[in-house]
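Hi there. Long-time user, first ticket. I'm pasting a complex I've been working with (about 668 residues overall). I'd like to know whether the download I got is complete or cut off, because the file seemed smaller than I expected. Thanks.
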Amino acid sequence: MREVARRANVSVATVSRALRSPGQVSSATIQKVRSAAEDLGYVYNVTASDILKGRSTVVGLVVPTSSSTLFGETIHGVQDVTAETGFSVIQGATRYDAVTEEALIDSLLERHVHALILTGMTYANEDRIRRLARDGWTRVVVVWEKPGSDPGISYVGIDNRSAAERMTEHLIALGHRRIGLIVGPYSRQARVRHRLEGYRDALEKAGIAFDPDIVMERRPDLLEGREAMDSLMGMEVRPTAVFAASDLLAIGALKAARLRGLSVPGDVSIAGFDDMNFGAYQDPPITTVRVEAYRIGQLAGQIAVEPIGTPERSYCLDCDLVIRSSTGPIKTTP
Amino acid sequence: MREVARRANVSVATVSRALRSPGQVSSATIQKVRSAAEDLGYVYNVTASDILKGRSTVVGLVVPTSSSTLFGETIHGVQDVTAETGFSVIQGATRYDAVTEEALIDSLLERHVHALILTGMTYANEDRIRRLARDGWTRVVVVWEKPGSDPGISYVGIDNRSAAERMTEHLIALGHRRIGLIVGPYSRQARVRHRLEGYRDALEKAGIAFDPDIVMERRPDLLEGREAMDSLMGMEVRPTAVFAASDLLAIGALKAARLRGLSVPGDVSIAGFDDMNFGAYQDPPITTVRVEAYRIGQLAGQIAVEPIGTPERSYCLDCDLVIRSSTGPIKTTP
DNA sequence: CTGTTAGCGCTTTCAT
DNA sequence: ATGAAAGCGCTAACAG
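Hi, the file is complete. Here it is re-exported in full:
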């Protein structure tokens, strides 16, 4: 910038003004400055400006994994909104690991991010985040989970418990009473735990005993879904329906059923969660819970870029069941 | 930091040293400083340090879309490597749009990123990038494409042309002579154009005339694949095999075939590209080209974090055909 | 309209 | 081992 000033025969302050607030400068000077900048290949430095203004125009985004079409939509939502307002997004993946998550959050904080958007926060780091939020150090948005009540923490998510309950009810309504569940590691994530609770709620209402043997706790990916389903289908009294609390798990489960020569939904019904784009392209198309992932990202982004000190704000989005062909009535033994 | 200094009764310089280069400070002082920092909830500011040192510890990563399991793997690779070396990744998606890409690159440059990792650079922005790279302004890594020869630009990718040629040869070897192609927008992306060229190479070698009518140029997603396949299958003389230059397109195509009651590979063979994790979970599992997306990301990350001025370095990874069940011999009309 | 000056949070000489 | 002071690239307040 000093170089530019010298070349244009003006002070650095004028350069700054010419480039950033052209209203205060004569158009002749603006031209001079612009062309000097052009000649020198000058590129403005937002970072320096941030430092001086004691602010930050970066938001940190923490996701479990970057390679999911689902979180991907949320990421898009966040990026679109933040880009409009001149913010950049530093993104990192935890791989469902608390230690990685902590390291990630640390590095984000050291960059003094304006906001932290957290997907699937593990219990391990909750206290720390709460303290940060309470002190107004950064804005904190927790995403994908039903609103809680922590001062300074905003939530954008869905009611996982209710959605899981409704899907389980759907299966019960089809006549199923032995319903397997494949679910993420619920001991660590609220989101997942709530899905388990919803499942149990529905069973209880229908007077079906909860059987821990047919609940599989797995990392949400294709292979784990397949393996879990295989165990389930290998049981002496096997479930007639399986609720996979993620479409990834459901697609894996579908594969396992196919390999065992079981027809879906003839022999066993399979339901998923999330409505990932692939779900409708499976054979049969998968019954699932629609989640507006992009919208969640947008809202999270909007909240994130608000000035520090703006009160927390929470949204709980509705999510509908999408009944496709992977679930059907229980087979009546002839 | 000044606060910490005051509370610990030392100068800011000492605080800086105590926290960042403990070797130069007495352990008593370190303790004092540490506890003062703790009490005040002090968090180090990397950004300020970057400014002062005239460097940047951020790399910019540009991808076509964030919601792809494939680019997701590349992102993971980059993140894992950069995290180890204290870099953060600012990531943005172009959505296959040149204008968005340009805006994104601008914002990255204004943050004075240490390096720019570009996936699927469009022609529109090539000149600009080349100039940047030549001037040593940032490190530039172009990813997913076969190495070219531009001073200052590193490449990490695959030989798209050769891979596409081999897949087409595979189909030809199965007896197919009328082979449809569904491919991304090749007018704008080198990666995609090379796949088209590979396809043509193979046809030519086999003495098959190139027929532009059975080449569909589509955005790589499920729906477009489905629609393109539907057009192809609606033709009077329809192709007996279709090469979809992305697994996303292939899965969409599979759906279209299924809806038309065509058996795969009985009535029509379908091949994909990329080896996305979903491919093996389709029915039938999809024949495809394996691409080591994570490895590509790692290499790109390694090159990116090297000091400015380090010579460019390029890698062209091998990629094997993965023959699954979606391709088979041509049906001999009885 | 434009220049001068001070200073953001940090690190690095250079003294002490 | 510690402190004082200068300075990274930028902007805001104050003069002129």
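A couple of notes from our side: Chain A touches chain B through 55 residues (CB under 8 Å). The mean pLDDT of chain A is 94.
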